[in-house]
TrEMBL record:
Binding residues annotated for ATP, in chain numbering: 7-14
Highest taxon of the lineage: Bacteria
Encoding gene (name): anmK
Catalytic activity: 1,6-anhydro-N-acetyl-beta-muramate + ATP + H2O = N-acetyl-D-muramate 6-phosphate + ADP + H(+)
Single GO MF annotation: ATP binding
InterPro entries, per the entry: Anhydro_N_Ac-Mur_kinase (IPR005338), ATPase_NBD (IPR043129)
Organism: Saccharopolyspora kobensis
Protein name per Swiss-Prot or TrEMBL: Anhydro-N-acetylmuramic acid kinase
Length: 385
């Protein structure tokens, strides 16, 4: 099966192929390969331009939904090659364009990337729109990584934290007093914005700019004063909050050198993640996502936390493709009639089957529902390229 997602960094579509097999209550996952299919520069520019608080017309939304769907279809074709041309279905988390949170509650969420294009290009049925049902049930629809993390780390010492650092950072607490997962705040979102202004490149590659700067305590304190960090979980956020206007407001009264700005924003991400990990008494942190490729950010996390901080590759799950593999897992659960949310982590009223299914080239034939929902996930050695 295939898993596809484009995260809040909006740099391209991550696609992973995997074998998933349910043996009793143990779900076995074997990665078959993964890659990222970058968005064309014009499409990425238009996606970023459509983010709030900028206006976005119905015409532009329709155009983006189609173009992103076609790009996801291209990525799915590459994923099918990674699976040697054989897959039961594709699962897509799409491209989040807006996540509506009001008064601490998720009211709606919008992922674009019309799945019919994937079905038409590959002939596969497509499981998509995987967040909306959780939101309708009173949850935040994010982070859904809690489902994978709770299964994968079930036998590890706890409380442990599974951390993903994408555009937004999120944690899952496994083995704690209660199930818990939430967005901690910006991951790479503000760092990427500042880097693009300084260098024209969409990221601070290797943390090179931040490494030459000094953290400005006055700016860091002002950023840490944001009320989001004091909201109780479950909670979720996105670029509708941590965006260019947000950064401009923070910088309005500050004269700061480029390197110091990147150093401060990197420290903000590390500090807010570390605060969240300490609050739940984490004994170990297992990190994934693009942020783990930033050595300055990873070093800051290890400095701020007095517990081991590992990269998920060390436990057999590729950090770069974890979210695409999560998507494949969510699709597998829906395909087999098993709930795909963890209510204690998203805030939903109860377990729910997630998503909608777009038929492929032939009649839609689902397997019999699983007799037992999985309670463990074992990652088998595979091709992680």
């Amino acid at each position: 099966m295939l898993g596809l997602i484009s995260g809040t960094s909006m740099d391209g579509v991550d696609v992973a192929a995997a074998e998933l097999r349910l043996d009793g209550d143990v779900l076995e996952l074997r990665p078959l390969g993964s890659t990222t299919v970058a968005y064309p520069p014009g499409l990425r520019r238009d996606l970023l331009a459509a983010l709030p608080p900028a206006p976005c017309s119905a015409a532009e939304l329709c155009r983006l939904d189609t173009l992103v769907g076609q790009h996801f279809a291209t990525a799915a074709g590459i994923g099918l090659e990674l699976a040697d041309g054989r897959a039961d279905f594709a699962a897509s988390l799409g491209q989040t364009l807006y996540h509506w949170v009001q008064d601490g509650r998720a009211r709606g969420t919008l992922q674009i990337g019309q799945p019919a294009w994937i079905a038409e290009a590959t002939g596969l049925p497509v499981v998509s729109d995987l967040r909306a049902r959780d939101v309708a049930a009173g949850g935040h629809g994010a982070p859904l990584a809690g489902v994978l993390d709770a299964l994968w780390l079930a036998d590890e010492p706890g409380p442990g934290v599974a951390l993903n650092i994408g555009g937004i950072a999120n944690i899952t607490v496994v083995g704690g007093a209660r199930p818990l997962a939430y967005d901690t705040g910006p991951g790479n979102a503000l760092i990427d914005l500042a880097a693009a202004r300084v260098t024209g490149e969409p990221q601070d590659t290797g943390g090179a700019i931040a490494a030459g700067g000094t953290v400005r305590a006055d700016l860091l304190d002002a950023l840490l004063a944001d009320e989001y960090y004091r909201l109780p979980p479950p909670k979720s956020t996105g670029k509708e909050r941590f965006n260019a206007d947000y950064l401009d407001r923070a910088l309005a009264q500050v004269d700061i050198a480029d390197a110091d700005l990147l150093a401060t924003l990197t420290e903000l991400t590390a500090r807010t993640i570390a605060d969240a990990c300490r609050a739940v008494g984490a004994v170990r942190v297992v990190a994934s996502g693009g942020g783990v490729r930033n050595p300055v950010l990873l070093a800051a996390l290890r400095r701020l936390l007095d517990v081991p901080v590992l990269v998920s590759d060390e436990l057999g799950l590729p950090a770069d493709s974890k979210e695409a593999l999560l998507t494949a897992l969510l699709g597998f659960l829906t395909w087999h009639g098993t709930p795909g949310n963890t209510p204690g982590t998203t805030g939903a009223a109860g377990p729910r089957l997630l998503g909608s299914i777009t038929p492929g080239a032939g009649p839609l034939r689902l397997p019999a529902p699983a007799v037992h929902p999985p309670t463990r996930l074992r990652v088998q050695p595979g091709d992680t390229a």
